[in-house]
């Protein structure tokens, strides 16, 4: 059932949580406003994460375009979460406290035995999911704040550097690693590699000038963090 929350699995659980959450935020915010990224390292939950979008359309686009994405060396497995998150329920006015939900389910006790059995199974599943997501929400809020959701990127700035198949980026924040840059630019055809000669600078190479131009127009001005945006120009060949 399509909803705002995506469930991600097959993630390398050795990735540190702050790096994982920031990388997922960067990857999925391309498709729409991300409200929250939940990632835990508890036993039984390693290698899993949840991404909550503001609307279903953005979640659907992210699911379709990132299914099987090579994320830190492993292919992402993505599906819709089994239940609407409490955060979304509170936004659309359908939220009910856990105790009230159980009470409403118990009111159907006069139904047939088959129906009662089905209701109990659904109640147990819902309680387990709600408890897990509630724990994740608490831990995620106590962790470092996610970067502000990026507004639409401004139009690319004009540059006097002759067009080439290499893009140059500077003033890149330390938390934006080579792996994150690779994830951002590899979505465009012709991508070859990202080179980081020193902190704050990087070169992105494509097979030809036309492919580099497509990436420049799409990514110039992209918000990497709350205060830092990609500033792209053509690099010298």
Structure description:
Helix content is 37%, strand content 18%. A hairpin with a 5-residue loop joins strand 8 and strand 9.
**What's the total helix number?**
7
Order of helices and strands: EHEEHEEEHHHEHEEHE
Percent of residues in β-strands: 15-25%
Number of strands: 10
General form? elongated
Brief synopsis:
37% of the residues lie in helices and 18% in strands. The chain is α+β, with helices and mostly antiparallel strands. The chain has a four-stranded antiparallel β-sheet with strand order 2-3-1-6. It has a four-stranded antiparallel β-sheet with strand order 8-9-7-10, covered by helices on one side. It has a two-stranded antiparallel ribbon with strand order 4-5.
How would you describe this structure in keywords?
7 helices, 4-stranded antiparallel β-sheet, 37% helix, 237 residues, alpha+beta, single chain
Topology:
Blueprint: E1 5-9, H1 17-28, E2 34-39, E3 49-53, H2 56-66, E4 70-71, E5 74-75, E6 77-80, H3 86-92, H4 98-106, H5 113-142, E7 166-170, H6 178-185, E8 191-195, E9 201-206, H7 209-219, E10 232-234
């Amino acid at each position: 059932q399509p909803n705002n929350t995506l469930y991600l699995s097959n993630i390398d659980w050795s990735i540190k949580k702050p790096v994982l959450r920031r990388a997922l935020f960067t990857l999925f915010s391309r498709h729409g406003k991300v409200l929250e990224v939940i990632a835990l390292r508890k036993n039984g939950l390693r290698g899993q994460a949840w991404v909550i979008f503001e609307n279903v359309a953005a979640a659907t686009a992210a699911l379709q375009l990132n299914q099987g994405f090579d994320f830190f060396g492993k292919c992402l497995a993505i599906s819709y979460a089994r239940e609407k998150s409490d955060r979304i329920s509170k936004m659309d006015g359908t939220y009910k406290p856990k105790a009230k939900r159980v009470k409403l389910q118990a009111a159907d006790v006069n139904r047939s035995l088959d129906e009662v059995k089905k209701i109990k199974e659904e109640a147990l599943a819902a309680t387990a999911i709600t408890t897990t997501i509630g724990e994740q929400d608490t831990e995620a809020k106590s962790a470092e704040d996610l970067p502000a959701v990026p507004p639409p990127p401004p139009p690319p700035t004009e540059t006097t550097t002759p067009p080439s198949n290499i893009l140059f980026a500077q003033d890149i924040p330390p938390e934006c690693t080579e792996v994150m840059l690779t994830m951002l630019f590899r979505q465009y055809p012709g991508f070859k590699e990202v080179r980081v000669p020193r902190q704050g600078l990087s070169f992105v190479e494509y097979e030809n000038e036309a492919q580099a131009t497509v990436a420049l127009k799409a990514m110039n001005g992209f918000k990497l963090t709350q205060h830092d945006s990609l500033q792209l120009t053509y690099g010298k060949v």
